[in-house]
Structures are given as structure tokens and as C-alpha cells.
Amino acid sequence: MIELTTGVVFLMSSLYGNAQSGNTQMIAPQDSQIGATTTADISTSTSTMTMEAYLRKEFADTPILVDIARCESSFHQFDNSGNIIRGRVNSADIGVMQINEKYHAEYAKRLGVDLYTLEGNIHYAKHLYAEQGSQPWISSSKCWTAGQVALKTQ
Questions:
Q1: I need a surface site. Which of 20, 50, 71, 72 has the fewest CB within 10 A?
Q2: 87: buried, middle or exposed (CB in 10 Å: 19+, 13-18, 0-12)?
Q3: The 3-state secondary structure of 102-136, one letter per residue
Q4: How many other β-carbons are positioned within 10 Å of the β-carbon of residue 9?
Q5: pLDDT digits (tens, 9 = 90+) for 30-74
Q6: Where along the chain do its domains lie?
């Protein structure tokens, strides 16, 4: 019942806007399976702190992925117009985790993952990290390894 209620609230929010101040976002509960995607409403005027907190929860077992998300997308899945964030250097990199469409879209689709949703982008990042570690994000490693070093010295 709570899933139905949450789904209705998110649907209504996407149609009529968020009832709270304009700089917040709502995120639906997640299924932890790699292929599971839900229809969460992430408002296009995202709150970085809310997204960061959400990612910290999602990546509790792999906190390095939070640092990678910070470096790759500044914790954004969508821009202010509701379009998926694309990489500045490589426009095939998409979403909060900057998953490359060219290399991963077909495989993600076979897994039942939609890389264009926040849930799918996060689930695929977990899957990718489990298979390859941080290697897929090596080009931004100067940024996220600095975050890891800072955490160790505190």
C-alpha cells in the first residue's frame, strides 16, 4: 500500500510540481536488484544536498562511488530543463554516474536497466563497480582520489 501511495504522490508531483520550496527533489524507495527500476520523480531543480544524501545511502557499501558521482556530475542526473546530464568531454557519458552509452547501453538494456533514469544509472554503476572496480571512471580519478585521501586524514 505504501508503494502505491508513494507512486501516486510522485506522479502528482511530476504533473503539478513539488509542494515544498522549488529547490528540493523527491526520490522513491529503491529496489536493490540491478535490473529493478522505478518511476521516481526527480524534479529538474535538484537539491545537491538531497542528491548527495541519497547517493550516500545508495552507495553505503561503496562510498568511493559517492566521490565519483561528485566529480563526474556534481550530483546531478538531469539539467534544469529536465534533460539528462551529458559529459562535457564525451557527450556519450550520461547521468549522475556518467555511464558511457556507447559501451554500456546495450548491456544495460539486456539487464533490464534504463541508464536514463536515476535508479538505472545508480544500479548500473553498482554493477559496473562490482565487475571492474573504479576503472571505468579512471579519467576523473585525480578528483575522486583526492576526496578519498581527505577522508582518511580527518
A1: 20
A2: middle
A3: HHHHHHHHHHCCCCCCHHHHHHHHHHHHHHHCCHH
A4: 14
A5: 343 444 333 344 434 446 679 999 999 999 999 999 999 999 999
A6: 46-153
